[in-house]
Amino acid sequence: MPELDRRDFLKITGLSAGAAATVACKEPVEKVIPYLNQPEEVIPGIPTRYHSTCRECPGACATTVTTREGRPIKVEGRADDPFTEGGLCVRGQSSLYRTYDANRFRGPMKRGANGLERIGWDEAMQLLVAQLRQSPGKAFFLGGLETGTLDALIDQVMAALGSPQRLRYEPFAHEALRAANRRLFGRSGVPQFDFGKADLVVSFGTDFLETWLDPVSNQRGFMRARQDGHGYHAFVGPRLGLTGGNADEWLAPEPGTEALVALSLAHAVARLRGRGDLAGALAQFRAAATSARTGIDAARIDALARRIADAKAPLALPPGAEVQGTNAAAFAGAVMLINAAAGAINDTVVFGPDHRVERLGRFADLTELAGKMRGGDVKVLLVHGVDPVYSAPQVGFADAMERPFVVSFSSASDETTALADLVLPDHTPHEAWGDAEPVAGVRRLQQPTIRPIFETRAAGDVLLDAARALGRGDGLPASFFEALRAAWGGADALDRALGSGGSGRPSGPVPAAVDPAAIAALDLGAAELDGSGDDLALVVYPSLHFYDGRSARIALLHEIPDPVLKTTWSSVAELHPDTAGRLGVRTGDVVELATSAGKVEVPVFVHSGVRRGAVALQVGNGHPPLAPDQPEPDHRGKSRSIGVNAFRLIPGRLDSASGALAWYSTRASVRPTGAREPIARAQLTFDQENRGFAKSMTLAALHDPDHGSGGGHGDGHGGDASHGGDAHGEGHGDAHALPGANPGTPADVYGVKPLPVQGDASHLVTTDYDPASDAHADSPYRWGLNVDVDACSGCNACVAACAVENNTPVVGPANSLMGREMFWMRIERYVEETDDHPDVRHLPMMCQHCGAAPCENVCPVIATYHTHEGLNIMVPNRCIGTRFCSNNCPYKVRRFNSWRYDEYYEEPENFGLNPDVMVRAKGVMEKCSMCVQRIHDGKTLAQSQGRLVRDGDITPACAQTCPSDAITFGNLRDPASRVTELRDDPRAYRVLEHLYTRPGVSYQKAVRRFEAGEA
Fold it and tell me: Are 607 and 532 in contact (CB under 8 A)?
């Protein structure tokens, strides 16, 4: 018998001990029961995709929903949609969490002695029918914007009940624009604004990248028109939000006088374009005459007017909600007059394919409804898809709800539902059938991608059942689905439409022209602001993440940093540094904001993106806790109210011409309380300190390769006048024309003041290298990314897409304050301080997948390593949590699991996890993998077809959702790939490449359009 050595002995004893331990600690046996009759469309392990429609806002974007074994796990924009072309916003990416909300209503509820109590559907329907029977003709339906089959069905049912009373209410109803169009053009529709065609955009507080009309389509067109240095964007308003930060010029007039700026521009453009009729009607608004009131130099107005007049396809955007004052309709009319004078009507402003908002009621109508409720004219109020107690406190809706019997169809609690007498929870959009017509002629279908998780019912079916129980069902469809099928032409037609996601094309254009006589009917002038002249102008603005507050239940949207402030889980009062200094406050100091409508206490955030003499506050926060009984510690933020409700500070003043609420109508007193409150921030400074993270170049450098050396803006080309020569460098002065200008137009005509490019780190020495070589010699692939800094708007859609795709946990407010966020990618925001031209650069930052990765050689267990395809991969099962790799990473893109966040998932929240990506445990490191699971799927498909992966076969989640198309993924070893082409572009650079980490991610420099350069 051979002798047993030590190694073999340990093998045997280890195996025996392991086997014994396995038996002693045996887990209970779970039997896997296969499908008895497997659904035809379900193959275990293979995703199934459905066309549907996002319902997070009235934009109703076309989507594709990926499901696994009957569970939706990811939402993407539909690539073949002509408007969004595959893009989706941060709210759409997070929409699944509305369905998987563990705090949704489990079934019907009725008001009892202890608040809302659970009941069955039979009892709930009996209560509803009894109330309707007792109040014939006294029912009223209050809902949001519905534009499809449900909209028509509600009208049918309410008419059958003898109560054809209804109000479609949205906080952003565009009443002022509709009223202005009705007066000027004889049409009350909201036209299409063609961003993709416009070479110059002037926006008046219009947040078209955040909430205005169709933000995804807006961003797609806007960024496309700015490719290769084209386009120019001027922003007029008191605060630089996401939209303003993407502008090339900022005009911040005295609060309330923004309409005068629009009128001055309209007059000047009409004069330059030879529109004597318009120029004569607006003669009193010459820039020289309004300059003293607006605080904007007449020369700047004239320079911007000349840009507009010289542009081939200019576009002026009507005022957004944040500057909607007591002159809202006249202000909107003034902006539309700019379009008329510039020739934009029927070109970049097209009536016909209108946004379907014309049926929306006015804010004044909501006030009238509250009066009817108090007077007893409304006995039964049916509320669906709106929360007026939260979004319209000026109306006093909470008090008015005390008289009628209130029925809410909300799937989850909100301020209005909390006061309801009966709750009949509707399905969420991912559980329900539906359709929408966001633009005239464009119909989009919504189909369920999961069976209803709780005992909910479609609101349309509830209304139909109630009508039949009252004997009023004659002529009504048998069910909502039957109504939907009939509206789409029958079963076969519906099936075909489901395959394509909808049908129809935008309605054809309808010619429009301004009636010059109508100009006199507009009450032109500045807006009035209530309050003391010593107080600050109050700017209340919509939220990219929460819209009007309806998305605030989604914890992920609280955790993703605000795109401008980089704050999380809080409300803040934004002040200019000079204003804060005058008040004696700094970031984190708590102040009391008070107006005639109410008061709130909120911490201060100081930054230069808000004008002096103003204070800004975002709507969307200030809701009651999602789960007030949740025990501490509450890492998901469910047992605390987040921030304050900014709607409470807006007085109830209206624009008399349109009936719109005047958001921008008051000043607020700001009183320091002496308290301080910590603010969770994902980025502590917006100054890149000349380290070359987000680089830029001038238009001259873009169009002249000789200028591209030295980091795109070398020494001797960026100095100001104090450095000798002209301010734009040797040999580059007036000869260059600007985008939108006539060829040969001198740059100084537009009042250009060339500025030095900052933050380009031209002093750092870099070494050339080929990132394609950083993979195994036998591998046909070296995966890489390219990010166009000029195209990135900072909208956070990619951050949300990455989080949902890769099961990134939400850590909550307490952990966020400690810097424990878990996002695999972030968007860094850098601001170069200038007086008139905002120079804001957004830099998506993820793992750079370095060819010489500093993290790899310090890991003691080889948990992070370099694959043969050039990826830097993290193996959580190997990681022992030393965090050496994070310490050695110069990009700081690795995330450490400080807690078992997966233990906090309540059913059904865990249903949304992507089974292709593991859920990481406490004590391990994680980071971006370039969606390695998608890379694997793409390679498997190519291998099955006997070929290599082609360009476009694989798209990571961040690139797939980007509305700006700013992120490109591909194979750096494919000379024909788009990512290789971009890597070799003159604008290309790599972050911190002087460290010779050999990153596989390249960036394209931003382009500064406000300096002299070639068009």
Answer: no
